[in-house]
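Researcher: Next entry in the queue.
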Amino acid sequence: MSSDYLDLVASFVHSTHWEDLSEATRDAAKNVLMDTLGAILAGSQLHQNASLAKLAPHLGGVGDIPLFGHTMRTTTLVAALVNATAGVSLEVDEGNRLGGGHPSIHVTPAAIAIAEELKSSGPDLLLSLVLGYEVVSRIGSGTTIRLDVHSHGTWGTIGSAVATAKLMGFDAAKILQSMNMASSMSPANTWTPCIEGATIRNLYPGRSCFNGILACHLVESGFTGVRDGPGDLYTNLLGQEFAPDIVVEGLSHLKAYRIERNYFKTHACCLYNHPVLDAVESIVSKYEFAIDEIISIRVHVPPIALILDNPEPDNMLATKFSIPYAIGAALVLGKTDVTAFQIDHIDNPGIQEIARKVHLESDSGMDFRRYDYPSAKVSIELSDYRNFEESVIAQYGDAEHPITQVELETKFLTLATEVIGRDRAKAVLEMVQCLEIVTDITELTRLLIGS
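Model: Structure for this entry, 451 residues:
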């Protein structure tokens, strides 16, 4: 197929209009936007993100684009970088199992910054999010990523460029050029920062949004990219295999957009923890036993998740990429929300004792792109020889096992209220749900600044 698949993708992005989106697609986009804004607001208050926000006007200059959760404003590029970095920091942002990764946090901050700059409408913003999300997920589906590569930032750079190009009114040829340009600007990252808890990892979506916007401006400036950016990048460097046919499969007769088949996080940690934690919670709800009766916890996971085996993470981010810690928090604290992964729980002796009893085993059949086979299996062995086992295919919050609208809105209000107050959080919620009648996106963004 060579690079013909990119022509199909670019043509699809250019020719799709707000009127083409079904009510289900529009509702899904609103919910994804809402969830992402909650993640950004909550993450904005972490000390390093607050410091970056203060630094932003000095790095990028004073501008008109707001930094959510703060009073400072800066330029479009830097605002997208800062907001995206904040949004991934607490590991509560949504994602997509079909394509892997977290499309919205790589697309929404770029799209909303450009929309703010251009004074775009609510429908324009939502359409750009839907299309950028679609491309991120499809490129991800077509890639068999190397096990040591962390996908944050890679596919996302292409998606943020697509959203930006759509908002800037690019034709199909320039959209294609933007995708190719963005591919060559994609960051290449390993899982090491996640496992060690190095917070430079949080910048990956920030770089993705920054570079995606920049790619479009480079196209306008006359720069050129390679003929097949994704194919070159994912065949020769970051992936084991790249399949263009999968990228465009069903695109000409699309029945449902990828944004409708996402997942929302119900645990504040890496996705690979989620089906494991759901299995643990299911066992706890079905059987009675004391924590000190536990002898061992055996966990079967996809091969890639074996790296999440550190029983003694020493910082907040590292706890979110530790299956043993997450299980310990679930059993000892009885929760896996944002507070369960805060620094004051790291030395909890109960959590540490449970974590040391967790043993991970690989199951080669497990793959989060599959819905016909378990994503995780947990066996808890007790001192009285009882053994409880549970497996999970689709974690709670996935489109195949969805949370309720009330739960999703409650999650947003919980994340946003501490930053912008209850009244403004509710106002954001209400505006997002009727965004199709908003003529200037600044009506929404003015509600997201700090006090």
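Model: The CA atoms of residues 244 and 417 lie 43 Å apart.
Researcher: Noted, moving on.
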